[in-house]
Structure formats: structure tokens, C-alpha cells
Amino acid sequence: MNKGDELQNSTNTDSAKAKAKQNSKVVKKLMLIVFGMFGFGFALVPLYDVFCDITGLNGKTSTNAAVYNVEQIDTKRIVTVQFISRTAQGIPWTFEPMVREIKVHPGEMKLVKFYAKNESTRDIIGQAVPSVSPGLAAAYFQKIECFCFTQQPLKANEEVEMALQFYVDPELPENISTLTLSYTLYDVTGKVKS
After folding, report:
1. For residues 159 and 171, what is the distance between their CA atoms, to the nearest angstrom?
2. Strands 110-118 and 101-104: what pairing?
């Protein structure tokens, strides 16, 4: 082997080492990005909850009963409250509001009922999860009594009327004249300890 061949082999070896080192750096950076994205995916739900709590954009209503302490009903304003219900996939219930819409004065207490029937041949425990639209109005929709506070066990083919007692806080922003309360009913039978 002559000196030219040795020099060529030495250059090729150095080039391969440099390329391997560069590839190693790229792989490390990609792994760091993958782990960062994985961590962000886990952090996304808590971050979203914090963001929604700060801004009030999530439409979640309180899971605790409100105390009715309104000193004066705003009879100059009328707010339309609409009711929507749906069942999650896999729960064989009929679930619907007995009234689709009512007009209320802010501060006025109202009672509405929802109808539920277990259409299956087995006992099922349901849990209703509410949300309010527009999301900013959720903080002003006050539930005094609600079937969503507890789980609803229904035997096979059993039916029930469930109460919702509420008021719209008089501090509701003037530009909001319609609220939509939506419930989604889930089957929680398998999650309830016997």
C-alpha cells in the first residue's frame, strides 16, 4: 500500500468518525424532543384545567350545591336557559329533559326535571356530567339541587324523574341572554365499588 492509499483510508476513517459523532448528536436531540413531547402530553390535561379555571372557558359547572342567597331578582332581564341531554356510547338509557327551554329572571329560583329510563335487562348506575355554554356563563349558573351531584342507580326497565333546582346569578354579564345546559350520561357501573 502506498502513502496515497494510506492517506485516503485515514481521511475516510476520520470522515466516518465525524459522521458517526454528528449522527449521535442528532439522535440525542431527537430523543430529547420525543421525551419532551411525551412529558408535554402528560402535562397538557392539568395545564388545560388550570387555564380553564383562570379564564372560565371550560363550561364546567360546580359539583357542589349552591346556597340560594339572592337579595333581589333582576326582573328587568330575561335569560333563556336551554336543556340538552345525551347518553354516552354504551349506556342503554333514555335520558331527556322534560322541558327543553325556559325563561328566567336572573336571581329567580327554578325547578326542572329530567326523565331517565334504563332500557336494558340489567341494573345500571349512571352519572350525569354537566357543562354550560357559553363557557363564561358556567360560573353564573348555580345549581341548588341536581341529580348530577350523585350517581343514579336504576334497575332493569326502571324509570325516574330527576330534579334540577337552579338560579342564574344576577351578576351574569349583560351580553349573555341565552345559556345552554348540557348533560352527558355515562355508565359508571363498573367503576362503583360494591
Report:
1. 37
2. unpaired
CB 120 within 8 A of CB 92: yes
CB half-sphere exposure, 76, CA atoms < 13 A: 3
- Separation of alpha carbons 54 and 78, rounded Å: 28
Beta strand pairing status for 79-87 and 178-187? parallel
Of residues 61, 66, 62, the one with CA closest to residue 166: 66
The model scores a pTM over 0.85: no
More confident residue, 94 or 60: 94
pLDDT for 55 = 47
Residue 23: which pLDDT band, with cuts at 50, 70 and 90?
confident
Model pLDDT for residues 105-130, shown as the tens digit of each residue: 999 999 999 999 999 999 999 999 99
- The DSSP string of 4-67 is HHHHHHHHHHHHHHHHHHHHHHHHHHHHHHHHHHHHHHHHHHHHHHHHHHHH--S-PPPSSPPP
DSSP symbols for 81-109: EEEEEEE-TT--EEEEESSSEEEE-TT--
Nearest to 128 by CA among 104, 79, 93: 93
Gap between the Cα atoms of 179 and 105, Å rounded? 12
